[in-house]
């Protein structure tokens, strides 16, 4: 038989042993999506999904992808992003940028014979006059090669200074030189232009080259210059009026427009050599733009690729903003 003191000691030791066993047990209490911090008794929220789990499961047809948080200057997702590929009509983003750089907002452009013989028929006629702002918007929405060439001629003529311009082809060459100068200024290391439209030079030679990463940073420059610069590309159709009061309807070449939430603007590109390209900027938060660029997809696949990437980018922002 134990005396009372012994009983008290046994009870005390049993209590201490119970506490020790509890503290060193590896079984955490059950509790839904929260767990108990054993050191401090603080509830911890579930960790966000690993970044790779958001983007890697996506079925992306494009050869190259880059997603960039423009507000915080951080890479969100990358796939072969620095590989140099044909740009096709993404070239027109630089054409538009230089138009804004060199021409006043009230400038006018006269359409030349050389402009209207470019690939694609916009029903322009030689001698026709357009306000530069309308011509740039028409080019970006409908991907008009006529408009791009006319803009290049206008800027090339002005930039030619006192030298005698003999042909419209020379003004195009001057403009292309300005495009490449701007690419170097922006440190777009994989970008090189051969013309103002992005049209293939031949069956084997593209009209411009660049990387998905370069184009994302070009989009950043465009948005920084003017947040509304690409606003026309948010619409499926737009009407324009030339100085001769001729009405033109521009149909957006971005067939996936309706499926891209909170789009700020974008540009399509496609040739036989390049395949399908698409670059968009979306607002993933309140005034929080992100650029998404796909290169080397198929003509239709670029739209599905971009839609999937946009959705994943919104999901990313929910956890990593």
From TrEMBL:
SUPFAM superfamilies: beta-lactamase/transpeptidase-like. Keywords: Cell shape, Cell wall biogenesis/degradation, Hydrolase, Peptidoglycan synthesis, Signal. It comes from the Bacteria. Signal peptide: none annotated. One of its GO terms (molecular function) is serine-type D-Ala-D-Ala carboxypeptidase activity. The active site is at 89 (acyl-ester intermediate), 92 (proton acceptor), 143. InterPro entries: Beta-lactam/transpept-like (IPR012338), Peptidase_S11 (IPR018044), Peptidase_S11_N (IPR001967). Substrate binds at residue 267. Gene3D superfamilies: DD-peptidase/beta-lactamase superfamily. Residues 56-297 form the Peptidase S11 D-alanyl-D-alanine carboxypeptidase A N-terminal domain. Pfam families: Peptidase_S11 (PF00768). One of its GO terms (biological process) is regulation of cell shape. Belongs to the peptidase S11 family. PANTHER family: D-ALANYL-D-ALANINE CARBOXYPEPTIDASE, TRAFFICKING PROTEIN PARTICLE COMPLEX SUBUNIT 12. This is Peptidase S11 D-alanyl-D-alanine carboxypeptidase A N-terminal domain-containing protein.
């Amino acid at each position: 038989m134990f005396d009372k003191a012994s009983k008290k000691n046994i009870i005390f030791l049993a209590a201490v042993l119970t506490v020790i066993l509890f503290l060193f047990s590896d079984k955490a209490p059950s509790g839904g999506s929260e767990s108990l911090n054993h050191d401090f008794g603080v509830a911890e929220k579930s960790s966000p999904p690993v970044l790779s789990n958001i983007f890697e499961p996506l079925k992306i047809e494009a050869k190259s992808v880059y997603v960039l948080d423009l507000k915080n200057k951080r890479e969100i997702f990358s796939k072969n992003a620095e590989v140099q590929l044909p740009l096709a009509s993404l070239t027109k983003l630089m054409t538009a940028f230089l138009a804004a750089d060199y021409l006043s907002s009230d400038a006018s452009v006269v359409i030349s014979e050389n402009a209207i013989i470019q690939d694609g028929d916009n029903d322009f006629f030689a001698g026709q006059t357009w306000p530069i702002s309308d011509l740039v918007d028409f080019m970006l929405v409908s991907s008009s090669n006529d408009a791009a060439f006319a803009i290049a001629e206008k800027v090339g003529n002005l930039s030619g200074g006192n030298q005698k311009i003999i042909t419209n082809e020379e003004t195009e060459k001057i403009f292309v030189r300005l495009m490449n100068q701007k690419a170097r200024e922006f440190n777009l290391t994989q970008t090189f232009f051969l013309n103002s439209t992005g049209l293939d030079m031949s069956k084997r030679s593209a009209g411009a080259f660049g990387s998905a990463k370069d184009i994302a940073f070009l989009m950043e420059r465009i948005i920084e210059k003017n947040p509304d610069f690409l606003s026309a590309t948010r619409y499926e159709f737009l009407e324009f009026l030339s100085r001769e009061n001729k009405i033109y309807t521009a149909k957006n070449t971005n067939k996936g427009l309706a499926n891209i939430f909170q789009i700020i603007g974008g540009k399509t590109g496609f040739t036989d050599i390049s395949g399908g390209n698409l670059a968009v900027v979306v607002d993933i938060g309140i005034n929080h733009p992100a650029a998404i660029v796909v290169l080397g997809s198929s003509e239709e696949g670029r739209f599905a690729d971009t839609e999937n990437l946009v959705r994943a980018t919104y999901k990313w922002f929910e956890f990593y903003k």
